[in-house]
Design brief:
Blueprint lengths: L1 E6 L2 E8 L6 E5 L11 H8 L4 E5 L17 H10 L2 H7 L4 H14 L5 E6 L1 H12 L4 E7 L13 H8 L6 H7 L14 H15 L3 H12 L4 H5 L5 E6 L8 H9 L4 E5 L11 H12 L10
Parallel strand pairs: 3-4, 3-5, 5-6, 6-7, 7-8
Antiparallel strand pairs: 1-2, 2-4
Helix pairs in contact: 2-3, 4-5, 7-8
Length: about 300
Amino acid sequence: MAIVDVAPGISLAYETFGDPGDPAVLLVSGFGSQLLGWHEDFCRALAERGRYVIRYDNRDCGLSTKFEGHPVDMGRFIATVSSGDIPAALAMIPYRLGDMADDGLGLLTALGIGRAHVVGASMGGMIAQTMALSSPERVLTLTSMMSSTGEPEYGRSSPEAQVVLFTPKPADREGYVAAAEKELVWASRRYGDAAVLRALAADSYDRAYYPEGIGRQLGAMILSGSRADALRALRVPTLVVHGLDDTLIDPSGGERTAELVPGAELLLIDDMGHDRPRALWPRLIDALTAHTGREQTQQQVR
């Protein structure tokens, strides 16, 4: 693991897998998720298929830069958004998804990589879309996984998933780890595993427990708005992946993304929720390998 400056005042923690001479694949993590969300074994398996894999912590998460000078009262923020006072809500959140996209692109620049395949999951899919929209010349291919377009009528959470998402986790390690089991509500019905969720929660807690960043990341998502019009004009080769068991971001989010992006390929996966069960890794890695193989030109500037 290493930490690198990607912009003034912004440092990102990252890890790499594979040969730097292979095509680069940047894995973008989701809401509140550290780079651990992209399992090390998954990264190594993808690297073994001839890809240089990079996973990293988004800002306000893990070991990357924290915006500690901008506390967010989530109750007040949600009430402000609900009341329609968007200017006041904007003033509460110090950054947007565009800033988080710039972080990822800045990481590539810091690593000497001119162009890369970008893969994002959940909020990471939104960030990855934003990278492709803002800097298409740097994104060889886009993969948007278990994500949506920013349009509120698509990719809605079930009421049960919303309760789990917005319920603060206990601050003590034991309670935090136990609470992870509640995420089974949006996991694969067939492969969801409470032990796996607890293990990831324990590793995340021990590495960098930082719940304060969650409110700012959530605000960035909410306030960044719809990408629908921009996605209609996107010309980056795009793969959209969504699990049919997903209750956190309903599959309509993926379907809508694929509908908007010209020529996008849609892969809907049975027995996958808002997770990546190990049993489905071969299918996911096959899909990523095939999609990122669409561009074989040398994309790295070293």
